[in-house]
Every structure is written in C-alpha cells, then in structure tokens.
Amino acid sequence: MKAKKVIEAAQKVINNRMELDHLSRLYGTVIFRQYRDNISENEIEHAVSQLLSSYFKFGMIYDFDTFKDLLIQNIAEDIFSGLTDRLKQANTIDNVKYLILNVITIFSKTIKTRKLDGLAWKKDLTPFLKTFIIKFINNLSV
Fold first, then answer.
1. pLDDT tens digit string along 34-45?
2. Are 109 and 128 in contact, with CB atoms under 8 Å apart?
3. Greater confidence, 141 or 56?
4. Among candidates 138, 127, 139, which has minimal Cα distance to 46?
5. How much is the pTM?
6. Among 81, 135, 137, 83, which residue's Cα sits nearest to residue 106?
7. Where along the chain do its domains lie?
8. Which of 1, 12, 13, 128 is nearest to 78 (CA)?
9. Distance between CA atoms of 40 and 28, rounded to whole angstroms?
10. Which of 42, 36, 31, 37 is nearest to 6 (CA)?
11. 102 alpha carbon, distance to own chain's centre
12. Alpha carbon of 85 to those of 51, 72, 88: distances in Å?
C-alpha cells in the first residue's frame, strides 16, 4: 500500500472517531506500519493534527492535568496497535507510554496556561507529538 493511501485510510478512521467524553480508546494508526522513507513530515503532522482534532472539541475548555493521562494512554494504544507483530515484540505498550509521558512532561514544562480550549491544545500539542512520532518511526527496527 502506498503511504498516501495509508494516510487517507487513517484520516477516515480519525475523522469518524467519537467525541472526547465518549472516547474510551483510539484506533490503530496504520502510519506506524509503513517504512519511514514513505511518509513525509507533512503527512505525519497532518495525521497528528487529525488525531488531536478527534480528541478535542473546539470551544470546550480542557484542563491539562485532567486529560493528559487519558491522552497518553490513548496515543500509546494507538501507536502500539499500529505496529507489526515483529515490532510489538521489541516495543511493549508500557515502553511506548513511557516515551509519550516524557514528551508530555517536557510539553507541560513549556506551557503557561493549564486550561485552554480544544483548538489551542491541538495547536500547542501538534509540534511536540509530530516530533515524537518522527523520532519514534526513525528509531523503529524494520
């Protein structure tokens, strides 16, 4: 499958996700199954942006401390479910959670306001998560 088709399929899944208050878990993002040479940074940024758009309602105020644990859990499950069986053996879900926790901790040290609307959280989190995903993909043993 070409990376473009994979991204389109992932976007359809992301666009069909439920609202945050009904969300119990995110679905596997297939971009993690592709070779890192097939995915551009813009496509990763767009996928992260879409993921966050499905997670946050625009116009609603979210407290960082309230949603961060659920966000870490869901992103970890999303990444882990998108890994191939071979990669799952090398990366446990707890390891992925730990890596995301590190990124979110660094992010939390940079923010001044802990309560923002969904659009603001999306804009603030996108570059951090994009950088994390790029590094994660580049460090996968394929």
1. 444 567 788 888
2. no
3. 56
4. 127
5. 0.67
6. 135
7. 3-138
8. 13
9. 19
10. 31
11. 14
12. 23, 22, 5
